[in-house]
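Page 47, continued from p. 46.
Same chain as before, 391 aa.
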Amino acid sequence: MTPVESHLLNVENSVHSRYAAAAKKVEAALCCPVEYNADYLAVLPEEILERDYGCGDPSPYVRPGDTVLDLGSGGGKICYIAAQIVGPTGRVIGVDCNPEMLALARKYRETVAERIGYANVEFRCGMIQDLALDLDRLTAELAQNPVRNHADWLQLRAIEDRLRREHPLIESDSIDCVVSNCVLNLVRSEDRRRLLAEVFRVLKVGGRVAISDIVADETVPTELQQDPTLWSGCISGAFREDEFLRAFEEAGFHGIQIAKRQAEPWQTVQGIEFRSMTVLAYKGRQGPCVDRRQAVVYRGPFREVVDDEGYVFRRGERTAVCDPLFERLRQEPYADHFEVITPLDDVPLASAPLMDCRTARVRDPRETKGTDYRMTMLGESACCSPGDNCC
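Result:
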């Protein structure tokens, strides 16, 4: 076994064994102080509360009626909080690969359902970097087809592919909100691109992620990354702050923003500060850049802003945008920053011409109103009420 392979195995074993033990006995070093809504905590069993290991609270970004996915759900605390927020019309799915943590979370499903008046939570066994593979189904397959040699191993790969295709753990485009609390930093560095691609896959268009995690203000040196204890303790696997945000950008998300950043570091190792940060990001509508004569006006306060694709919006200008970008900017988190302008006569999507989005341009008002627009409206202003002397 090479040194790299040995390191990867040590990291995974350390994470598994440490959290398996933490499911049975409280380990304070695995978490930093977090304040949650006391009303939501009131229905949770004490065993779940005392064995919660997180660094933030992504639950404020969950909405009534949402289908929520919690990555690395552990003992189920965030899932049971989210269950109360989404209400009886919503649904919450927790994914974890640690049998001890899953057992703890599943133990209280009926108890919590009885206390809140409905059952809307389930816990599934899977790796968060492979949200298509149901490990419970895989275990059943292995019982029928044990791996004894390389031929069996090749057959196992075929079984995994079939399970992903026919019985995905999480369906594509099925989730409104993905949350996670101090888990992404536990995933091996080489698996993180796949992890965020999986999150993007399962989200619905317009869906969002709210991820609380530990980040570092400097690049963590190799010698610290190779320490399994520091890795399983949510330290040496931490993203650097700017690289954490860039990872979401590279995965195709937009509207990426720091929702909360801990002012004081949680831990400091060799002068490197580690703190909690919560990031929000969104999945936008994909599609061809077609021109439906739509425009947006950036309200300010900056002179100009640049979006994740390099598109420039100047304050007060009527900027021409393609249809997918127009739909994105009329929704959160952009809606408060832009006025949207639709054409007087709708341009059907099927007949809209392609648009070059590489450079921004000002949309002439006649493009949206039409060149033959000749309306004249005088007299009482629509902004005045009868009897007002406002003009």
